[in-house]
Amino acid sequence: MLEGHPFEEKISALLKTIPDSPGVYQFFDEKGEIIYIGKARNLKKRVSSYFNKDSGVSAKVWVMARKVADIRVIVVKTEMDALLLENNLIKEHQPRYNINLKDDKTYPWLCIKNEPFPRIFTTRNPVKDGSRFYGPYASGRVLKNLLDLIRQLFPRRTCNLSLTPKNISSGKFKPCLEYHIGNCKAPCIGLQSEEDYNANIAAIREIIRGNLGGLTSRLRREMMEHAERLEFEEAQKIKEKLELLQAYQSKSPVFSNTGLQADVFSIVSDEKEAYINFLKVSEGAVVQSHTLQIRKKLGEADEELLSYGILEFRLRFESESPEIIVPFDPGIELEGVTLTVPQKGDKKQLLELSQSNAEYFRQEKQRQAELVDPERHTRRLLKQVMKDLRMPVLPEHIECFDNSNLQGTNPVAAMVVFRNGKPSKSEYRHFNIKNVEGPNDFASMEEIVYRRYRRMLEEGKDLPQLIVIDGGKGQLSSALVSLEKLGLRGKITIIGIAKKLEEIYFPEDSLPLYLDKKSETLRLIQHIRDEAHRFGITHHRKKRQKNLIKTELTEIPGIGKNTAEKLLKEFGSVKKLKEASSEDIEKVIGKSKGRLIIEWIQANQS
User: Fold this and answer.
1) Using one digit for the tens of pLDDT, what is the confidence trace for 410-459?
2) 262-370: which CATH architecture?
3) d(CA 452, CA 464)
4) Amino acid 339: pLDDT
5) The CATH classification of domain 552-605, taken from the options 3.40.50.970, 1.10.287.690, 1.10.150.20, 3.50.50.60
6) What pLDDT does residue 59 have?
7) CATH match of 8-102 with 3.40.50.720
8) What is the dihedral of CA 305, 317, 323, 142, to 10 degrees?
9) How far, CA to CA in Å, does 345 sit from each of 77, 135, 341, 352, 354?
10) Is the peptide bond before 374 cis (omega within 30 degrees of 0)?
11) What does 181-195 look like in DSSP terms, one character per residue?
């Protein structure tokens, strides 16, 4: 799919880590500059399509895709969030390849003009002239309905007259049609004071900011009054206003209509590293997202790391936001800046969005490390195992033993080999128990461990650094007897794992070790143990089946092993074979051999 791409290895690894979530993706060139920003319902499918000629991409898109040296994504909750975020980021960064595709696609803003008797109108070109802008709005219809609602609730002027005190007092204006139909109170001729007009503007700002509690209660009361007077048409109009207000209150976490100016920070950390996410919020819209990875040196606390991240990002991006939103108090004070730890509302949603992006970035980095540099991941995993199990060396070679003794029959054992944390299936071995009579797991474990390592010593093969015994103290003690006989006790780390509580037993300790359920060490040991159990059970079933064939069907004169296997494959068991009709049996092995089987069945039934 990526054959011939200049950055084939890196892009291929990145594509495997992208989630199946809605969000925004950013393409960077080899200089680290954003060359394209897009949105997607499914990030993995959309981003992958750019690097697959079979997906039908145009030649121009393919040329752009070949310049991509890095990919970053911002995960959001819904498509609408992705739509708004994409627009904000394109306006902020203006990537090279977005100009032709996105330049004509801008979203409307709501403007409260900085002037006497402020006008309220929509615009697609916000300018910095002191006016207040709210948005952008993804739906022009919703914005129009909101303006209609504001007009019905608070009459205001729509003209562009210069309503200075001097012009109003001079009597140079005349009331227009808007006054006569009730949409304006004619401040142009002094019929509405500036104080009264500004009070209405303040109420409108509350609506725009989403502070609708008092207004909603008043509208519900009026709707009920109209309904009681059987004025259903008027009640329906107010109901529509309430529905509009409810829809307006369902704000996106990416866009907040409060006009918020803030920096949002969150942190995700583990034992060795921390990831700090930064969201820049301008006029309620997220315009920037970045995550910083910090490698811990001295086990620094999250408070210390977060304070470092805040200062680093604000200096790097020259941020002067008056508010910082954080998950906890980092213990720093910035002049003129308010630190907020939100418990609910829009700010809490923004913090959760930042937290999810930090967590995604952490997971992405770990997956990339495994995909791009699997040896590095393996070394890290083995070092963790060595530390958790108190080993003197890395467990590059691990062997695990398991007994299979179903219902006391056909006792066998299995051994699996893992090298560098991965199964080495060519080295798996089965053991038929030779010197133990009856179901005796302890004696069987002693026998197979002795046979395995006596042979390895005789052949001069390298011994494992770690031996895992499937079982508790009893099986572990039996294995130790064999190591003692061979002079290997103390030279190889050996542990037992008890299945019920996943307890780890050491030869020298009377009490077991309990590893965290999410521990990578425990997950690896469980994987090895389960693989040994699976391998042993498979062999045990085959042996039972073989013995069943040998002791029953192959004793019939004229019936050989191949014929017996055909019958068992067709009917599943000897019991079902005995229940089958003569016609069905003859279809499988022919009439002559079929008669032998039928005669044998009849003889055993009498």
Assistant:
1) 567 889 999 998 999 999 988 887 777 666 778 888 999 999 999 999 99
2) 2-Layer Sandwich (3.30)
3) 11
4) 92
5) 1.10.150.20
6) 75
7) no
8) -120
9) 16, 18, 11, 11, 15
10) no
11) TTS---GGGTSS-HH
In angstroms and rounded to an integer, the radius of gyration of the C-alpha atoms of the chain is 38
How many whole angstroms from its chain centre is CA 110?
35
What number of residues does the chain have?
Answer: 606
Structure-block tokens of residue 419: 């090298």
Model confidence pLDDT, tens digit, residues 16-37: 889 988 999 999 999 999 998 8
The Cα angle at residue 166 between residues 160 and 170, in degrees rounded to 5: 90
Q: What superfamily in CATH does domain 391-512 come from?
A: UvrC, RNAse H endonuclease domain (3.30.420.340)
Nearest Cα to Cα of residue 600 among 547, 563, 569: 563
Q: What is the pLDDT of residues 321-367, one digit of tens each?
A: 899 999 999 877 777 889 999 998 888 988 998 998 888 888 877 77
Distance CA 369, CA 107 (A): 39
| Dihedral pair phi/psi, residue 294, rounded to 5° | -125, 125
In whole angstroms, what is the distance from residue 141 CA to residue 160 CA?
Answer: 24
Would you give the distance in Å from CA 544 to the centre of its chain? 45
d(CA 215, CA 222): 11
25 three-class SS: strand
- Per-residue HEC secondary structure of 208-227 comes to HHCCCHHHHHHHHHHHHHHH
At residue 95, the 3 state secondary structure works out as coil
Closest CA to 210 of 246, 262, 254, 261: 246
Q: Are 66 and 29 in contact (CB under 8 A)?
A: no
User: Fold match between 262-370 and 391-512?
Assistant: yes
Confirm if 249 and 228 have CB atoms less than 8 A apart.
no
* DSSP assignment letter at 554: G
Task: Tell me the residue ranges of DSSP E strands in 176-332.
Answer: 262-269, 273-282, 285-295, 323-325
Q: Where are the domains of the chain?
A: 8-102, 139-210, 262-370, 391-512, 552-605
